[in-house]
Amino acid sequence: MGVYNVTTVTQFILIGLSDLPEVRYPLFVAFAIIYQVTLVGNGAILLAIGTEAKLHTPMYYFLANLSLLDIFCPSTTVPKMLRNLLTEDHSISFIGCALQLYFLVALMGTEVFLLAVMAYDRYVAICFPLRYSVIITKARCAQLVLGTWAAGFINSTIHTVSTFSLSFCRSNLVNQYYCDIPQIVALSCSSTYVAEMLALVIGGVFGTSAFLTTLISYVYIISTILKIQSAEGKRKAFSTCASHLLVVCLFYGTAIFTYLRRSSSQSSLSRDRLISMLYGIITPMLNPVIYSLRNTEVKGALARVLCGRCPQEAQS
What we know:
The protein is an all-alpha fold. The chain has helices at 24-51, 58-75, 78-86, 94-127, 132-135, 138-164, 181-185, 193-227, 231-239, 242-259, 266-294, 296-306, and strands at residues 11-14, 91-93, 173-174.
């Protein structure tokens, strides 16, 4: 049942997990382990890049920022979700909800832009290898990274302000395990037209631009690789972008499946919330696995870090 007031809502109740009481303890254990693996895996990537001099290049600078995002993004929702699984108190303050939504949208947006920048970086590396060091300089690299973070947080500021400028005087039950724009807007008792149009237009423009940049970059990359005559040349060229391509496919594949899927039954809604959890914490966990398995330089650096920088084992 909803909570109805004639006064302004001061807190929200996250009910995304309340209809799964029989599995809340197994879920707590599973998601706690996944979260810890995510932190350790991405932390190891950051440590390897920071301590290995030969990884101080633009590609790995971008990867380090991706690992930071994969630590920060689940950290905005998972600790609260784990607490809700263990306690009966599923409330979150109005300010707490606004901050959670702000940082979640900002970090997710930054990751979308960063994946586009990383695709452009691989496009230049494969299509213009002789000009790569001229085009992707340290200054340009820093500008691109700062631009992705700025765009993500500006985008989030617009959405958060438009969402929480609405009036909330009806139900305060959020049908999700975290504060997200559609669920919060649905609770408003004032006109939501502006907030919905901003989400549609700004989100559509930014998201489509980043997606098209990524897509077009890989169209040119694949076209260039197919023109290489030798099989060894093709293998080497593809190996430089294989890890990023897998990460892109994982990110957009799970995002499309999660947000474009429509359900009507209550059991399907519960299943969709579980899928959104997997999208929010599984993808950040898998990214360091993909890079450590597919990239020999990262694998070697991780081996040196994990075995106390043994000089010989890292060469294997």
